[in-house]
Amino acid sequence: MKKKILISFFAVVIWLSAIVGLAFAKGSIKIVVNNQTITPDVAPRMIDNRVMVPISFVSKALGAKVSWDQQNQTVSIKDNNQPQQEDIWKEDLDLSGSSWSGVKNLIAVYIAGYDNRDDELIKSVTVDGFDMIPIGGIYPAIIDYNIIDAQSTKSGIKVRVKVISNEEKLSEEIWDFDITKGKIQKWGRVSSADIDSYTVFPGLSFKNN
């Protein structure tokens, strides 16, 4: 009796395995990305108890860039939401931690003043005669910013900042700051371009209407 039960048990297991295997073979494995079902060009498969999915299709569904290096046989995946740092000015700066902290804080205060149209705050971190103080009017809200490079100058340091702002449209701007003796001497907008969307962090994203 025990042998019959055991044989029956294994028969059920084999039968279920066959059904599951058939379902997998028919491509019934679903891929859900951010609560949406996607249909890849290559169906997922179960191999050695592991579900194999096309990495390129899933990565692109998450907004990442996927590239293939034939020479080095390497798949490269880059998250578009993460800042891709580039050494624009090709310079290794010799700065102490406190020196860099001072530079970073100057920029933070200026951006806060610019974003809130606070003349006094901007004057506190700029040289006398600084003429780039926003007065009245409507200015875009600054959603985020990142310092992307810096280089030494004859009188101090130049810092490049990527700024994401939003007024009627999302925009990515590049700003340059010239800093001398603990004050911002000059500010300039290098470039500006509209963007479709921007993610500050997972859970907080902005899109053009």
Stretches with pLDDT under 50, minimum 5 residues: 2-26
Rounded mean pLDDT is 80
- H/I helix tally: 4
Query: N- to C-terminal separation?
Result: 71 Å
Helix-and-strand structural type: alpha+beta
Order of helices and strands: HEEEEHEEHHEEEEEE
Oligomeric description of these chains:
single chain
Level of helix content?
Answer: 25-40%
For the secondary structure, the number of strands is 12
Give the percentage of residues in beta strands: 35-45%
Strand order of the largest sheet: 7-8-9-10
Name the shape in a single word: elongated
Largest pleated sheet: 4 strands, antiparallel
Description:
With 209 residues, the chain is an alpha+beta fold. It contains 4 helices and 12 strands. The strands form 5 sheets. Strands 7-8-9-10 form a 4-stranded antiparallel beta sheet. It has a two-stranded antiparallel ribbon with strand order 1-2. It has a two-stranded antiparallel ribbon with strand order 3-4. It is elongated, with a radius of gyration of 28 Å.
Provide key terms for this protein.
single chain; 209 residues; alpha+beta; 4 helices; elongated
Summarize the model shown:
This protein has 209 residues and is of the alpha+beta class. It is 27% helix and 37% strand.
